[in-house]
Specification:
By secondary structure, this protein is an alpha+beta fold. Helices cover 31% and strands 25% of the residues. It is built from four helices and eight strands; from the N terminus they run H-E-E-E-E-E-E-H-H-E-E-H. The protein has helices spanning 9-46, 154-166, 170-176, 194-197; strands spanning 56-63, 79-85, 91-99, 118-120, 125-130, 138-147, 183-186, 190-191. Strands 3, 4, 6, 7 and 8 form a five-stranded antiparallel β-sheet that branches. Strands 1-2-5 form a three-stranded antiparallel β-sheet. The radius of gyration is 31 Å and the shape is elongated. It starts with 8 loop residues before the first helix and ends with a helix.
Length: 198
């Protein structure tokens, strides 16, 4: 047995307005929840687990002292180091040598003294050749590297940011891409030219 309720003008209008208001609130809550999920997803993707702090290891491999090479050849009297990319992605690096002066390593101020950048895939080994200084001062090889960001959209974001960076609008550029973090790995301390001849 059922019963029927008859709604008259004002009551019916009130109920219809309440239902419409409820639907709007439900749609707004659904939209807000979806937006929150997207924001959390972007933050986790963008600022997720970082890379390990030290992604390059450098070890001494050996020295060349070949009489078959011309004496003025770069490789005739070089020290060879073996470095490994232990990062989870490709890195871009440059290398140079530093000489200890008065018992301290030189400060790194301004542009680094390198000539070329190289890319190394994750997990790969790469060789570094260095000519020791002619005196017996302590020296070492250094590698400055940054990890390449291969995530979707990062290259496009960098291009837009670079446009603003090139025009000295750094604040706007940082909104699109904050740039890369440069890290420096230092090789073992070597002792002058004697290392290459031993």
């Amino acid at each position: 047995m059922g019963f029927a309720v008859t709604l008259h003008g004002a009551d019916r209008k009130t109920i219809l307005l309440g239902v419409a208001r409820y639907r709007k609130q439900a749609a707004a809550c659904s939209l807000l929840a979806a937006l929150l999920v997207v924001i959390i997803g972007i933050l986790l993707f963008r600022f997720g687990a970082g890379d390990p702090p030290d992604c390059v290891t450098i070890g001494l491999c050996g020295a060349t002292n070949s009489s078959s090479l011309p004496p003025n050849s770069v490789m005739a009297n070089s020290v060879i180091f073996l470095a490994t990319n232990t990062a989870p992605r490709t890195l871009r690096y440059c290398a140079w040598t530093e000489k200890k002066v008065n018992g301290t390593w030189p400060p790194r101020i301004g542009p680094l003294p390198y000539s070329k950048l190289f890319d190394v895939p994750k997990g790969y080994d790469f060789q570094l050749a260095a000519s020791p200084p002619p005196d017996d001062a302590p020296w070492r090889i250094c590698v400055c590297y940054s990890l390449l960001d291969t995530r979707i959209g990062e290259a496009a974001r960098w291009k837009v940011a670079e446009f603003f960076y090139d025009r000295n609008f750094n604040t706007i550029g940082r909104l699109f891409h904050k740039g890369v973090v440069a890290r420096i790995a230092e090789g073992p301390e070597m002792q002058g030219a004697k290392t290459a001849s031993n």
